[in-house]
Amino acid sequence: MTAGPHSWPDGLTLRHDLRPGDLGRVIALHGEVYSQWSGFGVEFEAFVARTIAEYGLENEFNGRIWLLERGACEDERELVGCCAIAFRSEGLAQLRWVLLHPQLRGGGLGRGLVETALDYCRESGVERVYLETTDGLDASSALYRKFGFQEVSNEVVPMWREPRPLIRMERRLK
Questions:
Q1: Which residues have C-beta within 8 Å of that of residue 143, sequence separation ≥ 6?
Q2: At residue 18, does pLDDT exceed 90?
Q3: Mean pLDDT, residues 10-31 taken together
Q4: CA atoms lying within 13 Å on the CB side of residue 145
């Protein structure tokens, strides 16, 4: 199963038109998927909820969230992946909430989500894209490096449950 930014396997749909309930589904997916890793409990889910609230309430949805869904019936589609771009300032955007259900990993779908987000940035005139991550997410970090993101800072800060490394990675588009 391979997919680029504009072709998704049968049964999967990518959309970016937010509907009531979508933000909660993104938060829930993060809670469910990340709960399998040590240190990513309900506090992490609350952290994701706070960042999504900030995106909507303070950033005024300035950017785009993509939802990867599985299922034939629109009313019953399951959220299986997501990613977002939040515009931060002139020429600067943040890649956020990149997540793919573990059952779907390894087939290029995560790469397709990131490609879609970076294409959107290019079309929007973004010069630099950054993201923030932490330790223990080796597959995600490897994916970001494949896209040319480079670590620009790594410092231990208080996070949702304990002090953890806050790793900032950036990529120049222009």
A1: 98, 110, 111, 114
A2: yes
A3: 95
A4: 9
